[in-house]
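ARCHIVE RECORD
Type: protein–small molecule complex
Small molecule: aspartic acid
Source of inputs: curated submission
Record status: active
Notes field left blank by submitter.
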Amino acid sequence: MIVGFLQDQKIRFFVVRDDPRNSNKWMRAAARLALSPRLAYDPFQHYSLGMTKGTSMPVLVMKFGGTSVASLDRIRRAAKRVGVEVANGFDVIVIVSAMSGKTNELVGLVEETSPMFDAREYDAVVSSGEIVTAGLMALTLQEMDVPARSWQGWQVPLMTTSAHSAARIEEIPTKNINQKFGEGMRVAVVAGFQGISDEGRITTLGRGGSDTTAVAFAAAFGAVRCDIYTDVDGVYTADPRICHKARKLDRIAFEEMLELASLGAKVLQTRSVELAMRYNVRLRVLSSFEGQAANAGTLVCDEEDIMESNIVAGVAHSRDEAKLTLLSVADRPGIAATIFTSLSDAGVNVDMIVQNISEEGRTDMTFSCPTNEVSRAEAALDATSEAGELNFAELVADKDVAKVSVVGIGMRSQSGVAAKMFKVLCNEGINIKVITTSEIKISVLIDRKYMELAVQALHDAFELDKVA
Ligand code: ASP
Ligand code: MG
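STRUCTURE (tokenized, with ligand):
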């Protein structure tokens, strides 16, 4: 077929050898091409009739998680998908995770060697998993005659803060990779999860960080989309393992995804959703094990791109929560500051906070945090008390609680969602221990043994198995 478009006031034509069913894709690619004369590379040159260079292809980012690259066989399968997108006319940036289980293994080796490890060396070790996958993926693509090469974080260079093991991306220069695209490379395979600090040391972005690498690349390169290939086929209205009526969502708004991600729906790293929202990166979550349908998976997008939606988009849960209560602390200015400074200095991730009514100048302060941070919290508060900065009668920890939340942007304009949620829990005889709300979310702490029941009952009550 022939594709023509206008560029520099000249009409250029390409002859494209392709399946006619793909002609729309070619047209779109050509249109984008005309709009983004990025570099002197003509990807159609093998098929073109006397045309000049000076154009480049639109960029697609594809990220493959650990299970999608768990073996050479799976890497091959992932590489085939990349090959299809190259044939569709994209220059592809592939972001890879470590092969599944690899990062845990490396973390284990570090902890065994040095319990109080130097985080800079932790990063040096755990970043190696992605390096292996990136090289193997580039080799696999080359075997398929797709021009590809691997990039480690420092080669890009992906610049981060020096907060080792939890670094934040500061900059992704596009020059080196674009230059290679210009020279004929079609796929840049980038090791996810890693970067380099100003001091020239290797950093990592925190567990699940490859998602964030992928979104950051999509933003930096102005990619048409960022596809996250994983072992689930999208974002669900609830965890299908505990709620069999859970339904896959075709679309979900950034804000909703952000709440769900931070509530423990482990599909995407929270930071990656924040970035996608900030830079308006169209993010798609899909399975690398299913056939390729044009609109498979779930698109995480701006709420304006969602036509119809339920008031509640999903029910999330988080199993490993604990509730701590400081009994009888002084009710005076500065006390909350003292308590939560002490906890934050100890690295405790506090979630919900409730201060009770005060009597005779004393009050109770309740907060929640992950179960595995309880001993750290207790130690920190005891130390603060011993230092004479805090006085309380007792610290009571309840480690058998779970958090259940309903999330949906529709709540902004609809009242009665909280009332309905509490009613549903009441009908099931479930006692609520703590409640918090945001504009688009209501969360409750309940006894862990009722968690699944609560999720199922709420899913039914808000009819999440039905499309709005
Ligand atoms: N391999 C890293 C981890 O397991 C990063 C990632 O896969 O996103 O956390
Ligand atoms: Mg992940």
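CURATOR ANNOTATION: The chain has two domains: 2-305, 314-461.
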